[in-house]
Amino acid sequence: MGLTLSVIIVNYNGGEYLKRAVDSLSLLTVDYEIVVVDNNSTDNSLSVLPLRSNLKIIKNEKNVGFGVANNLGVMKCSGDVILLMNNDAALLEDIGSFVKLVRRDKKTVWSCSMVGEDKKVRPSFGRFPSSFLDILLPSRLYSGEGADESSCVDWIEGSLMLTSRVLWERVGGFDENIFMYGEDIILCKEMKEVGAKFVVDPDVKYFHRGGFDESKKGNIYIGFKSYFSKYYSGVRRKYYLTLISAVVFLKYSLGVLFKNRTAADSYRKAM
Predict the structure, then answer these.
(1) Shared domain check, 220 and 105
(2) How many domains does the chain have?
(3) 211, 226, 254: which is the final residue of a domain?
(4) What is the DSSP letter of 258?
(5) What is the structure's pLDDT at 4?
(6) Which of 95, 138, 142, 150 has the most beta carbons within 10 angstroms of its beta carbon?
(7) What is the pTM (predicted TM-score) of this model?
(8) What residues contact residue 146 under an 8 Å CB cut-off, 6+ apart?
(9) What's the short name of a Pfam family annotated to this entry (predicted)?
(10) What is the rounded CA–CA span in Å between residue 214 and residue 260?
(11) What is the rounded average pLDDT of the residues 42-53?
(12) Are residues 41 and 132 part of one domain?
């Protein structure tokens, strides 16, 4: 049998967090390799990485985006199971048993509860958007604390996602037309359409410095544009894209009106 696990970490100016991500993998009790794909960082973040026989580094000459870089990492890796992990994420405990689960059941996609610096659980999975209310109130899409394996989970955030190589190759990985935002939800949609099931274990946790906050509210709408452009056509696509633009402009205007500069800047970038 070949190598069990390949961990793919896309890095862009990861700084001190990249080392934390790589060091956390020592918790694993399965054989693994680490593939770091660097998107032309300018902060010398690769210099913090320790020398390891199981570490591969791929250096891109430009920032090709999250999806393309992950696809490149998977193309160059050797494992039967793939763990996508952000450069500012870290394991907090061994997930070897779940790696073996995904290796046995190749249509299972696994993740666990995401916690931030404050150690509080934050939403990192949910259901696909499908209505006006989902666009107006994106928080409706997220599943909260207390989820279990029987929860209706459509997608898992790409900051920590465990999948089989067979499933990945069947759907062709990330859509390379998307530079960033929404590509993980679209990947999950593609996987679900070929029979994948998504399991989130609430008793296991991982750290992620990033995640959702006030400065990233607009990014949700960039993801919405990608999702509705891909899965809807004709009048319905035009309706949803127009609706998205209107909601983004409304929220930008409210941010300006109430002097919430962080939110306003985020929505302005999404327009």
Answers:
(1) no
(2) 2
(3) 211
(4) T
(5) 95
(6) 95
(7) 0.94
(8) 202
(9) Glycos_transf_2
(10) 9
(11) 90
(12) yes
